[in-house]
Every structure is written in structure tokens, then in C-alpha cells.
């Protein structure tokens, strides 16, 4: 058995052989590896190939893609010990190695494949940034010397596949973090929009009880009305929170998602909604687009519920100050009774029992943006979300 060691990393460090986990439920990456194996085997003159990655505990290597292996060999090779033969040597260091003594492979694989159809196996490390993530094998009918140029190409392919594995791991971690952030966001919004209202209702209940015992009907009616209103607000806010977290961001982006709302808005509300966009490229990250979408969605929900408007519009402009989203309607306006609670809160006309504005302000803060609510010049209400120029520009480089 001979081993050809790869060059050390730029800082002089050798591979650490750190155990890595990859989510192999994603068939897209499996298909990518499968296609690679076909081309690699043809390049090297091999009759079969396989890709293995380290398991979560780092003690085994799992077969995740293969090309040309008999079914009984696939089954036997599905999970092998980390230290198994040349494969173990390759996973413990950045190497390209050949093995032509296949007795250990034959004992594990059974049948007559090793030593028969297969006379030699090549093991190449899959590396990224000095870390070995797995290996790939090439199986040959006969032993021969690979030209140095082919060895270099095979090592480079190992690095490319290692990069693919690394990206898959990063994507899985990103999804995990996203789920955790969404859970925390749900907790925050339930607290802000529901818990405080329930606390208010709870404080009113003893007052209601005392008024009833004292046969003070005016006070009893007032406290009953307060509790009833609070319960109604909790119900509405709970539905809103459920809507926020049931709604998935349109994979085609913010503009497509907003147009989707506009297409069905009149049928749901009787209000004609138009989208006016003068910006060719928003340059927002995925996370920023989600927050903007929810802010616009909340503003439109308030228009639908309280404005009594006939027309509404979402206007997107790029100004010297930054990226601007304006949501306006021709409805009752801020001074009219029964308008959205977002307006009531902004005008400080009454104690807020609806936390739509607070939720929108919280989302705007996460964006580093400002949110303004006021009267529309032509009548109705106007909500303006402004993302500063620096925030919108850096979004283009946000991963």
C-alpha cells in the first residue's frame, strides 16, 4: 500500500480530521455527488466509485453516493469504521492513497468482488479549510500508476466536493438558527400582543366582582365592557400572530409576495390595492425582506379592518435618505372613531389594547429602519417605513 500525502494548508497546518455531520436528507446534494462520480470514474479509468462522510459521532463513515458497486457491496459498505484500512488513513489526514491488498475489504464485503472484479481501491480525502469531511473511493479492475496530473485533478475534485459538503452543513445550521429565531420571535410577539392584554383583563376582574357585589351596575357594566374588549383584542392578536407564522415568504422575493397580496386584496376586502414600484433592485437580504413584508402586511390588515377605504396603495421609492415603503389609503383617517388601533396608539387617544403598532415598530427596529404613522394628504392614513441608505446598501452583501 502506498500513500501520497497532499500539500499542507497555507498556514502550515495539516488536516485536523474533525468529525463532521451532513444532513443527507437533501437529495439535491446526493444527485450532485452521483453525477460527479460518473465523471470522476471516467476521468481516472475506474469501474466504480463511492462517497463517504463522517457520522455525527465521528466514529464511522456513511456511504452517501455510489456508482457501479454491486448491491451486496453497497449493503456491506453502507457504514464502515472510521479507522478501516486506507479509507481510515484518508479520513485522518489530507491524502490520496492506493490499496491493492484487499483482504480486509473482502472479509467485510463478502462475495468475490474484492480481489475479483476489483483489484485496487483509491481513497481521496474530501477537505475544506484544513478539515476532512469524508472521502471518496475509486475502484479499479487492475493496478496501475496514475499520472501526477491526474492525481492533482483528483485532489482538486476532493476539495470541490469538500466545499459542497461544507456548504450543506452551513445551510443546515442556518436553517436551525432560523427556526430558533422564529420561535423566539413568536414568544416575543405573544408576550407583547397578548400577555399584556390578559394582564389588563385580570386586573379588571376583581373590580368587576366588587362592583357586582356592591350592586353598582354602572361600574359593573364598565368593567364587564373592559374585560370583553380585552378578550376580543386577545382573540384578534392571536389570529394575527398565527397568520404571521403561518405565512411563508414567497421564494420569488418581496415584490412577488406583495403583488400576490394585491391580486387577491379586492376579493377579500372590497378595497382596490395597487403596488407602485420605482426601484429596479431592492438589494435587501432574505431576513430584511421578511420583516418588510410583515410590516406592510400588518398595515394592510389595519386598512382592511378599520379604514372604510375604497382604494389603497403600496409605494416603493428610493430616496436620498434610503429605501422607502409607503402604505396609504383614502379611508376615514386618523381622527375618525373606529380607525385601526395602530392610529389610536400613534395619536395617544386611548390606552392601547391592540399592539399592531408595537409589533411593526419592533420589526422596524430590527431592520434599523424608522416607522411613521400619520394622516394622508388626500385623506385617509399613511404609514411610511424608511430603511436608511447604508442599511439597504449593506443588505446586498448580507449572506
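Q: What amino acid sequence fits the structure above?
A:
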Amino acid at each position: 500500500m502506498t500513500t501520497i500525502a497532499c500539500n499542507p494548508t497555507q498556514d502550515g497546518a495539516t488536516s485536523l480530521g474533525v468529525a463532521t455531520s451532513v444532513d443527507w436528507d437533501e437529495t439535491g446534494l446526493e444527485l450532485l455527488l452521483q453525477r460527479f462520480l460518473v465523471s470522476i470514474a471516467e476521468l481516472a479509468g475506474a469501474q466504480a466509485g463511492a462517497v463517504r462522510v463522517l457520522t455525527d459521532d465521528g466514529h464511522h463513515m456513511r456511504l452517501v453516493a455510489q456508482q457501479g458497486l454491486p448491491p451486496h457491496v453497497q449493503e456491506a459498505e453502507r457504514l464502515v469504521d472510521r479507522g478501516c484500512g486506507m479509507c481510515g488513513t484518508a479520513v485522518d489526514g489530507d491524502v490520496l492513497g492506493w490499496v491493492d491488498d484487499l483482504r480486509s475489504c473482502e472479509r467485510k464485503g463478502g462475495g468475490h468482488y474484492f480481489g475479483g472484479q476489483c483489484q485496487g481501491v483509491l481513497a481521496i480525502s474530501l477537505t475544506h479549510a484544513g478539515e476532512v469531511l469524508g472521502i471518496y473511493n475509486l475502484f479499479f479492475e487492475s493496478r496501475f500508476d496514475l499520472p501526477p496530473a491526474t492525481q492533482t485533478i483528483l485532489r482538486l475534485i476532493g476539495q470541490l466536493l469538500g466545499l459542497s459538503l461544507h456548504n450543506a452543513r452551513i445551510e443546515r445550521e442556518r436553517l436551525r438558527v432560523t427556526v430558533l429565531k422564529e420561535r423566539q420571535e413568536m414568544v416575543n410577539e405573544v408576550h407583547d400582543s397578548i400577555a399584556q392584554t390578559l394582564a389588563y383583563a385580570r386586573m379588571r376582574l376583581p373590580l368587576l366582582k366588587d362592583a357586582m357585589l356592591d350592586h353598582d351596575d354602572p361600574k359593573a357594566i364598565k368593567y364587564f365592557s373592559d374585560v370583553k374588549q380585552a378578550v376580543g383584542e386577545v382573540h384578534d392578536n392571536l389570529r394575527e400572530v398565527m397568520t404571521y407564522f403561518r405565512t411563508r415568504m414567497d421564494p420569488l422575493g418581496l415584490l412577488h409576495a406583495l403583488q400576490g397580496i394585491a391580486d387577491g386584496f379586492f376579493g377579500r376586502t372590497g378595497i382596490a390595492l395597487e403596488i407602485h414600484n420605482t426601484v429596479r433592485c431592492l438589494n435587501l437580504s432574505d431576513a430584511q425582506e421578511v420583516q418588510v413584508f410583515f410590516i406592510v402586511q400588518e398595515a394592510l390588515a389595519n386598512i382592511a379592518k378599520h379604514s372604510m377605504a375604497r382604494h389603497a396603495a403600496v409605494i416603493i421609492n428610493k430616496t436620498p435618505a434610503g429605501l422607502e415603503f409607503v402604505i396609504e389609503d383614502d379611508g376615514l383617517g386618523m381622527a375618525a372613531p373606529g380607525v385601526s388601533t395602530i392610529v389610536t396608539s400613534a395619536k395617544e387617544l386611548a390606552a392601547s389594547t391592540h399592539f399592531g403598532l408595537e409589533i411593526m415598530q419592533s420589526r422596524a427596529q430590527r431592520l434599523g429602519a424608522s416607522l411613521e404613522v400619520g394622516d394622508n394628504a388626500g385623506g385617509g392614513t399613511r404609514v411610511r417605513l424608511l430603511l436608511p441608505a447604508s442599511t439597504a446598501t449593506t443588505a446586498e452583501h448580507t449572506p
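Q: And what stands out in the fold?
A: The chain has eleven helices and twelve strands.
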